[in-house]
Amino acid sequence: MKALRKFSLLLFIIWIVVSNSFFSGCAGVMNTMQSGDSEILDEGSPYFFTFSKSYDLTEATVGHLPVVVDETWLNSENKHALTELSSEMTALLDSVRWTIPLNVKDLPRKGIPYVYFGNAENTTTEKTYEKEFGRTYLMLRILNSSRTWIDSVFNLIENENIDYILFISLGRTEYFAQSTGKVGENYIDMGTGYELPIKELVALNAPIPVLQIKGALIDRKGTILRAGAEGILPLQPSKFKVSKIKMDNILTEKDIQKMMVKERRNNLPKSPLTWQICLQNLTANLLERKELILK
Length: 295
Hints:
alpha+beta; 3-stranded antiparallel beta sheet; 12 strands
């Protein structure tokens, strides 16, 4: 099994290197100083995993960088809304002070850390695990930052006594439709305490495009210690009755702007905005602060 994971990870790294869309206009994002890892998360949410327990957050000082958008998803249809959403998320993190705001502008892109969570088929050119398990599954993959990138970041915050950094980004992915056990009643497990019913008729285990927030706890060496994700908003099944979903068309500017002010968690007191709860739960899970988790 370990050999299988290493083989799939190697394919993933090769895919990152050759992909023309990983970071638009940024050739050489992956360099020899980056390493990666992966884990199947097969038991439902919360979607988090500790890759290295070589840390202690008890008395540590953790800072957060501004929330960024995966550049593969920035296009003319959604760039403004996604950038606005990332700014709103950064402002929320700055205000609640769970971690120290790090006012770092123009983050270097070369050697940047990377987190992927979702349909494992989208992370490799081979359906290695599908052949092994005979079904679909969700996978968490990481690429640690390069030493050059992490040194650049800490040089920019040299006046801050920071032990660890939270790196958070918005991205696109695919989750799967799941069954409640009743005929015709499917749902999507979006993340911590967040299950959405699917009203339309879709195939069990059908991939569903999702707007997602993902993050990583990173040490001073650039190693991702813990990572995970929370799904914010799926594309409604009625909008993608096609055989092959184009990931570039997951959500429009209008969809995102509507979600920012109208999508709420009605199962929670005062019906807070969904994206705010996703951000809080992402941060709480990364910091292992159970008292901050809302579900």
